[in-house]
Write a structure and sequence with these properties.
CATH architecture of one domain: Roll
Structural class: alpha+beta
Largest sheet: 3 strands, antiparallel
Number of helices: 4
CATH topology of one domain: Nucleotide Exchange Factor Grpe, Chain A, domain 2
Helix content: 55-70%
Strand order of the largest sheet: 1-4-5
Length: about 180
């Protein structure tokens, strides 16, 4: 029995050591859990702040260009007022031309460019055909008239050109003409 009593204190010592290790690990786990909770709350707060900032950016992202366009409105109103006071359409035309140039500069500054059309090959990603005529000796599908200008913004089509095209006569018509 003497041997067992010596084992018991050693056994108790091991149990105490293991219990202390378990308590230490429990405290670490609680600390990690608290850190995780704080990190999750911080992440949720960051997400909410980013969403608010994004909404604010969306609401006011056009402010700079709108301010520039208000100058255009002022100039158009001035041109109309000047034309009325002088009863001259020439004054109005000059005012509108100056204003149009300024508006085009604003659009260029924003990366907006007109799509080139006349004489170009038809490209459905840039052009929308509203009329087609047939003509001998035409290779492919060529644009002969621009009905409404199209525009790109930083190389993305924001409004396709509306065009009229000329194409080679279809084979069925050629067969009909021969008979």
């Amino acid at each position: 029995m003497g041997e067992r009593s010596e084992e018991k204190p050693e056994h108790d010592e091991q149990i105490d050591t293991l219990e202390k290790a378990v308590e230490t690990e429990k405290k670490k786990a609680e600390d990690y859990l608290n850190q995780l909770k704080y990190a999750r709350a911080d992440l949720e707060n960051l997400k909410k702040r980013c969403d608010r900032e994004l909404e604010e950016t969306k609401a006011y992202c056009t402010e700079r260009i709108v301010t520039d366009l208000l100058d255009i409105v002022d100039e158009l109103e001035l041109a109309v007022q000047s034309a009325r006071s002088t009863d001259s359409s020439e004054v109005l035309i000059q005012g509108v031309e100056i204003t149009l140039k300024k508006l085009k500069r604003i659009l260029e500054k924003e990366g907006v460019e007109a799509i080139k059309c006349i004489g170009e090959s038809f490209d459905p990603s840039k052009h929308h055909a509203v009329a087609k005529t047939e003509e001998e000796g035409v290779n492919g599908c060529k644009i002969v008239e621009e009905v409404r200008k199209g525009y790109t913004m930083r190389e993305k089509v924001i409004r396709p050109s509306i065009v009229k095209v000329v194409v080679q006569p279809s084979q069925s018509k050629k067969g009909d003409e021969l008979t």
